[in-house]
Amino acid sequence: MSWAKPMPARPVVAVAGATGAVGIEMLKVLEQRSFPASRVVALASSRSAGKRLPFAGGELIVEEMTESSFEGVDIALFSAGAGISKQFRRAVNDAGCVMIDNSSAFRMDADVPLVVPEVNSGDVSWHSGVIANPNCSTIQMVVALKPLQDIAPIERVVVATYQAASGAGQAAMDELYAQSGQFLAGDELNVEQFAHRIAFNCIPHIDVFLDDGSTKEEWKMVVETKKIMHAPDLAVHATCVRVPVLRCHSESVNIQFSSAVSLDAARVALSAAPGITLMDDPSAALYPMPALLEGTDDTYVGRLRVDPTVEHGLAMWVVADQLRKGAALNAVQIAEELLA
After folding, report:
1. Alpha carbons 270 and 264: distance in angstroms, whole number
2. Catalytic residues
3. CB 297 within 8 A of CB 274
4. Which residues are paired to 210 by β-bridges?
5. 37-88, pLDDT tens digit by residue?
6. How far apart, in whole angstroms, are the C-alpha atoms of residue 331 and residue 161?
7. What is the spatial order of strands in the sheet that 154-163 belongs to?
């Protein structure tokens, strides 16, 4: 059953997990996009209660999140982990509040839409109290795939990701900083956040390994892409790698279409698509790079070329800030769709 309660024009918004890397970014995005909230509430664990966070020229005092925190709240942006989202779902919905959840808790539930507004904004209409934010690496890929899918059906996607340390949270970013200094000083490296050192290294291991030899991060990209794009028969294969970059995930994406798609047609479609910036001029060494795109909102596409190893194949390089479009921005855009 779809949600029946109407959304006010100026909703009360809560950010759950407000002191984490994504929560802080959510507050920034709400402010920068002038989201028409009548009030914004910052929620976190008891350890963070009382902290002050800058917002809209003033400060928000962080409140401890309890089951009563959502009374009078219309939209709750959650980035506190899957366990917390599951724990508070009923309290959120019983208060008449819509949860927009950034964790993996509900993404594949049949009654929960998994939404990237540039791709499937219409799915917001059938939510029943929870809307899921997809995995960060999935979001930027489907944003880039959608305008190409509109030209010709996509049959197969092979993607290799180069994922920033911040995708694993603030502590992971801190570890990359610390290890880089330790390595350059010739000191012993302290390894806590990853299976191996992240400084000056690439780790082909994100989340847990599954029985088929893939990781859960790779599985997420496969099943989420199919759900978002309404394409259950789409073949997707992913290899996900953590790299020593602070922010912005990069992806090498190879696409096979059901019929021929010219480079010119692909460029025109990508250039005209919302949320995409085409950076594709190899003669000028112009292509997306994570170091230059931190803090930006678009999904950037470059290195667009024919893949001659398959029939009707194209290849591209995709970069986006995973704390922005890959998490906070996408969640706020979903909230904007609720108002629309």
Report:
1. 10
2. 136, 249
3. no
4. none
5. 999 999 999 999 999 999 999 999 999 999 999 999 999 999 999 999 999 9
6. 22
7. 235-242, 154-163, 249-257, 313-320, 299-306, 276-278
pTM greater than 0.85 = yes
3-class secondary structure, 240 = strand
Where in the chain do CATH 3.30.360.10 domains reside? 138-322
3-state secondary structure 113-157: CECCHHHHHHHHHHCCCEEECCCHHHHHHHHHHHHHHCCCCEEEE
CATH of domain 12-134+327-339: 3.40.50.720
List all residues 6 or more positions away from 239 whose beta carbon is below 8 Å from its beta carbon: 159, 160, 161, 204, 218
- Calpha distance 253→315 (Å, rounded): 6
**Block residue for tokens 């190899």:** 282
Q: Where in the chain is the domain with CATH 3.40.50.720?
A: 12-134+327-339
In this structure, which amino acid lies at residue 53?
L
Q: What phi, psi does 306 have (nearest 5°)?
A: -75, 135
Question: What's the pLDDT tens digit per position in 180-236?
Answer: 999 999 999 999 999 999 999 999 999 999 999 999 999 999 999 999 999 999 999
Q: What is the CATH class of 138-322?
A: alpha beta
